[in-house]
Amino acid sequence: VTDGTNASVLVCDDAIFMRKVISDILTGAGYRIAGHASNGVEAVEMYRKVKPDLVTMDIVMPDMGGIDAVREIVREDPHARILMCSAMGQQALVVEAVEAGAKDFIVKPFQPNRVLEAVQRVLG
Amino acid sequence: MMDLEGLAELFRSESGDLLEVLSRAVSRLEGGRDAVALDEAFRAAHTLKGMAAVMGYSTVVGLAHGLEHLLESVRSGAVVPDREIVEALHFAADELSHVVEAAATPSVVPEAGFVAASANDSAEHVDAGGEEPVGARYVRVEQGRIDALIAAAADLSLARDAILSRAAELGDPETRQLVDSLGRAVSRVRDDAIRLRLAPMGELEDRVHRVVREAARVTGRRVNPRLEGGEVEIDRALLSDVAEVLTHLLRNAVDHGVEPPDVRVAAGKPVEGAIRILLSQDRETVAIRVSDDGRGIDRAALVARAESAGLRAADAGEMGDREVLELLTRPGFTTAEQVTELSGRGVGLDHVASRVRDLGGSLALESVAGQGTSFLLTLPKTLSLTKVLVAGCGGWSVGIPASMLERIEDAEGVAYGAGTGLEGSASEVVLDVDEVLGTGMSVGGGSRFRVVLRMGDGSFGIHVDRLVGMRDVVVKRFAMPPECPDVFAGAAVLGGGEICLVLDPTRMVGQWTPVPSAAGTLEKSWNP
After folding, report:
1. What is the DSSP letter of B476?
2. Interface predicted TM-score (ipTM)
3. Ordered per-residue pLDDT tens for chain A, 124 residues
4. What distance in Å separates the CA atoms of residue B365 and residue B373, rounded to the nearest whole number?
5. Closest chain B residue to A115 measured between Cα atoms?
6. Is B132's Cβ below 8 Å from some Cβ in A?
7. Chain A environment of B10 (Cβ under 8 Å)
8. A87 → closest Cβ in B11, B49, B127
């Protein structure tokens, strides 16, 4: 288990359930949750406000989807580190997200060690 | 370590929300392609799929994935959302809620996936706790905390009542003024606390459609349900009880009310039966009217059935709606000629009636042969506090539910409310608590005031000899000795620590044969 990084993470997902799952995995490994967002618009706003070291971004969200949020965030901060969270069967969207500026992706259901590996890769 | 129980609970509550969004969105597709509704339905199915995957509920994942796929095809234009497709979507959404319910039942152990894996996780991880998004408009609060707040507010109300009567005795105008404003503030706190638990009854709409759809499918009826007044609010704690009662009444309306399509056509009615759920409210109560435009209740058949069951029944011709309801809600009585798959399983109208009574409400019926049947349910808005008129009877204080109160009359005429006399199918009693309880200390009931209550299609009068005033009380149920008529909803503690017996007038009508001659005139001895 990696810890002591204390890197801050903004968790974006429209399901409270998913936000809790991801937050629990990350806090368990010593990361700090800087905030939550439940749609793309909130994600962009929260990013400006908390300037996190890392963002986990769901793809399918109301108001503004994850991919548009990635575009917006990367436009304002080209160094933003964003990890996409996708479900099975969303390969095309994942490719689109990476083109938009996301650094990596994980696929639901999340295995804690896979999530942490991906987070370290993106932060590394 | 992952908080498995908390996660499962979160899954249950959030999946419920998502299923409602899904069902509502699919309903909106009935009117043709609706891009917003499609997006919403798609997102709900998709989110649910992801959550279920984490929980390891593979059946839910599979079905949600299939539904998502179908919705995607509609969205891309590959599939046209005609009647059949919308029905298939409804069916899939219904199925999905069944499998979610089955999967999320606490006894079920996750099959595989993240949760199962994390159960073996090392214990050194720290639980993140329930941190919630910054800037959200809603806060999730544990029910228990709200209940504690409401209980505290109720105690405060009782203390206020005590101080108010104390201040009235003192007669110091300044103190009274202060206590008055304190009293108003306490009322506000109490009302706001109670409002925290109110939920719009429109949340039941999906369930209504689902129940009617399923019932129509099983019985071969064609029915169009409509719910009006979804903004009416009720205690969230009552919502599941309301849903249960409503489910039964709706199945009943489809099964026994609405005729088969060919019978309807032959009778010159639209082929599709209409079931209307009309919700309305006033300050203290919520009224739910469930009406169908079906065949109505066949009184002759009802009487024949009662007689064959060895029950005493009035003449069919003389049977008012109240008598019909009384017969229908007797334990075990049913009018179904054969036990259908639908209404045959589960519970009867007797269960509905007793359930409604337990909730502090009342049930009434209106039925016209050939034109349809309506059930009218009246429930208190909140369970926590009941507004009662406290009256004195002999040495006793009794509480009469204010929700049913029509007016109070004294010997000179109407002292509160409007109108005169008793209307509709009316009866009245002179209340003698000692006689009811069998204390052997009865001195006969007093008749200085007549409290007239609204009950179903008529009115009911209770004679009392003293009026104390309106109070908000917490009613606690208690067991009556078996030899006493059970006419009390429970007991409540008044401000001064005095006990007040709270009446359930609906039971008085059922259990008590009133003596008409004893009532009617009020004693002239009352001096204001």
Report:
1. B
2. 0.81
3. 445 468 999 999 999 899 999 999 999 899 999 999 999 999 999 999 999 999 999 998 888 889 999 999 999 999 999 999 987 667 788 888 988 999 998 888 788 888 899 999 999 8
4. 7
5. B114
6. yes
7. 16-17, 20
8. B49
